[in-house]
Design goal:
The protein has 286 residues and is mostly helical. The protein is built from nine helices and two strands. Strands 1-2 form a two-stranded antiparallel sheet.
Length: 286
């Protein structure tokens, strides 16, 4: 019995030992299982973080693209605003220059018209005159000023002297003589001719602005003059010389509308056609 008891004790000890080992093994297994679960969780977290990082990276790229487009649009908007401001300033400057020039032209017109403009209301429509300056001179009649008769010889002599100076290319002297003629004989039937020749003296000197003003004085003071077609034609040509094709076309069209059968109208058509073909000159200084 003692032997059996000792054997049981040994068996019990062995069993306890085995149980202890089993417990150790179970603890190890638990640790391994817990470690595996933790590693799996970490892996899931890593994958989630990687996905989030990828999304954030993609969003950052999109933001960079949008920012680039925004900067590009901002650049073009700023550029357009600057160009618009520059154009407005340029237009404002041009308008101011034009206003100043118009004022100067009006002052010149007032000086050129002189007494002719003052007597415009009292001047009767001019009678029918023959073509050609020479015939006009031979068929002219005497003028009246303030009711007193002025001899035909005096007016004709002054007119012929002015015309001869023009033929001699003494344009300034001719212009002064024609101005004297108009002031002295404002109602003479050659007064409109004299005003036309004043424009011609400026045109011959290539003073196209002065020519425009002189022709305009004739157009306003002598609307029934036979020189009207010629004045309109030369005024349009003067604007062409200054590079202002738009205004020249307007004047040529006015000539075509009012005097369609005149020789000047034919010339105006040719000038309009030539102006369309030629490149524009520098902008007129006025």
């Amino acid at each position: 019995m003692r032997g059996d008891v000792n054997q049981l004790k040994r068996d019990t000890f062995e069993m306890k030992k085995e149980v202890s080992e089993l417990r150790k093994d179970m603890s190890t297994v638990k640790q391994l299982v817990a470690g595996a679960a933790k590693e799996e969780s970490f892996g899931a977290i890593r994958e989630s973080q990687t996905s989030l990082y990828s999304q954030v990276s993609d969003m950052s790229k999109d933001v960079q693209v949008l920012r680039g487009r925004f900067d590009e649009y901002k650049f073009f908007v700023d550029k357009s605003l600057k160009e618009s401001a520059t154009e407005k300033e340029l237009l404002r400057s041009q308008v101011n220059n034009l206003e100043t020039r118009v004022k100067e032209l009006n002052e010149k017109i007032a000086k050129l018209t002189g007494s002719a403009a003052e007597d415009k209301g009292a001047t009767e429509p001019q009678g029918t005159k023959e073509e050609g300056e020479k015939n006009r001179e031979e068929t002219g009649r005497g003028a009246k000023t303030g009711g007193s008769e002025i001899s035909e010889g005096g007016s004709l002599k002054t007119y012929e002297a002015a015309l001869n100076l023009f033929k001699e290319k003494k344009y300034r002297e001719s212009r002064e003589k024609f101005n004297t003629f108009i002031k002295k004989f404002p109602n003479d039937e050659r007064a409109d001719n004299a005003q036309f020749w004043i424009g011609e003296t400026y045109y011959a000197e290539k003073d196209f602005e002065g020519a425009i003003l002189a022709y305009e004085s004739l157009i306003k003071a002598y609307p029934n003059s036979k020189k009207m077609p010629g004045a309109l034609l030369k005024q349009g040509m003067s604007f062409l010389e200054l590079g202002d094709k738009k205004t020249a076309k307007v004047i040529f069209q006015k000539l075509l509308d009012k005097y369609p059968d005149s020789k000047e109208a034919e010339t105006a058509k040719k000038k309009m056609s030539e102006a369309d073909k030629k490149p524009a000159k520098a902008k007129p200084k006025y």
